[in-house]
Structures
1.
Amino acid sequence: MSHWTLNDIPWDRFDPAKVEPSILRLAKAASLVEQNGADYTRYLCNVFADDAEFQDAARIWGREEVQHGAALGRWSTLADPSFDHAAACARFSAGFRVDLDAERSIRGSRVGELVARCIVETGTSSYYTALAEVTQEPLLRAICHRIAADELRHYKLFYTHMNRYLARERLGRWRRLGVALGRIRESEDDELSYAYFVANEAPGAVYDRRRAHRAYLSAAARVYRPHHVERVVAMTFKAVGLKPHGRLNLLTADIAWRALRRRAAA
């Protein structure tokens, strides 16, 4: 059962005077990506077809992800009454589909799949924390705090099941690191860029992947601060079996922060 519902959100706190256009564009895009939770649930249940315990957990996770999209979509419609969330979701789903027929993990193993899921939750928990801290709009802040807490709990969920499977598959830390890096590179793929395009361009617009990708990354990079990046690196290190605190962590976080600043300035 979810820790909160849409009815728990203080919708009456919405302040239209404090809506920032750049944050609105990001929230619209996020509302579409989160709706993919149902498809990812089906994919995960296929990959873990003989693991009823994990399937039950994945279904709860998927429902919570869809709820995140619904909350962000409702806020986006308050902030921009012309935004048709349902229509945007339909356009997004038509242009970007998860492989629902896959029976094995695209990561090569179940441990690899769970490492990849940890990386996704690492990114989302930090992203929504950053959005909550940067926005001046009180309702969006409340929504993002709830979502960030869920995403951190989801990270712990996948991390726990990853350790359970490590006892069987024994995927070494360097191979886990390879999976993690691969999943991080996938942030360059179409899912985020296309969501940003669909959420913020007119229905008849032509998708220019490079332009949409650049626009999304530039906007998203601006919400981060050094402590968010340090958290991403620490959680990533933990997922792959490296020490989450220390010199290597600090060096990696510094490199990642500099790269983000370059993206923000692009």
2.
Amino acid sequence: MQSEIAVYKRIVLKLSGEAMQERGSKENISPQVVRGIAERVKEVRDLGVQIGIVIGGGNIWRGLSAAHRGMDRTTADYMGMLATVINGLALQSACAQIGIETRVQTAIEMKNVAEPFIRGRAIRHLELGRVVIFVAGTGNPFFSTDTTAALRANEIGADIIFKATKVDGVYDADPNKNPNAKRYDRISYAEALGKRLEVMDSTAFSLCMDNKIPIVVFDMNQPGVLRDAVLGRKVGTLVCD
């Protein structure tokens, strides 16, 4: 049997906070779901791929939503950053249970919980086969974790960003609301920005476009999809030049 070879050496996986939840459940974090994510990560790491993970906090707290309800935006965003730390620790625990060595690096210093984000140290961890989980966003309010994913991907020299969503790619309309929505197999950064497709925010797109980092948008719940993606198989929607 011919061995499978990954086409990417180093990736950033962007997970939403909702990825930690079981669909239809009100539980913020499902240990079973998080274990499943860890198992998919292990499949890819076992192919020799270096993996950085950026995780959101929307399953616990959404800063922008709270700001729209009257809370100070800066405070609300910092609360959201702390929510990502909770999710990162949950994923680290699940990874440890199946033998994946990880490091959690935070943009907001909390030395008893996680390492501070230091670019050189993160790269060294990756080179040693550790999965690095980036939490607390960029450490600044008014920036999304999509922007964090784009920033960290650039900082660590990732080949690509894999963005896990609830749908199997980028559509010209919300497929949950419009049954006639068209899915793109491939789309340019400029087209995605021009059509205001809600894949990533404009800051994240611009960072990727300026530095030519492709993005693959896919449904993490599909079995084997992350493995297929790193093997170069056609998965979801590719956003590139």
3.
Amino acid sequence: MIKVKTSSSNILYADTINGACHWSMRMRRGTTLRLKDIEGGANVGMLFYNPENLLERYNAPDTLKCQHTFKITKGHCLYSDMGRIFCSVVNDAAGWHETVCGNTTKSMITEKWGDHSYQDYRNDWYKNGYDSFLVELAKYGLGKKDMAANLNLFSRVETDDQGNLNYIQNHSKAGDSIELRFEMDTLVLLHTCPHPLNTETNYPKKAIQYEIFVSDPVKDDDMCMNSCDENVRGFENNRIYHLGLGS
């Protein structure tokens, strides 16, 4: 990864993650993670865990059903399986991020783009999302049993009248960004491997940039908190948790 220089005084850290790579970090409550698609057509697979209790993790079904949505965008919150909110989407230029299609696997990559192993291609080998998450999970003593349904930021998937899922190629444009404001300490796992429904002829490697900065205080009229009754309850669950009253 290449360090990104920035002149903005409120940026705590910034970096670039190349295409077909993986990373993880601990985001602190009260900080915001801004992710930017550098050249367009990026995909960022992402998972969340509670670093104080790794059994608590991102829950895609609850995130969607409690907010009556099929997509993730500005105003939505991303839930744990304990009914708490890991983070809120406070800004979003792409307008649509999906959380139903999961990851690529080695067999999927081979079928779509051929077998490019590390032994034969070194740093030009073709990584997949599933194994990329496993590498990051292992750093924290986690494994296959701890995998959850993941987000795919910057990717858009629509359904037709027959219920088929259709991937919208190059939905995200160069410079599109999303900002995640973290409402609790969160272990973030991510990769920049292709979306499982990507139809590119050649294996895509799309880099992203990320910046971490201090969040603005959450006000009583906060859009994410007040977008639905369930989010109000989710923020209350967080408040109780941070009081030390919730497990």
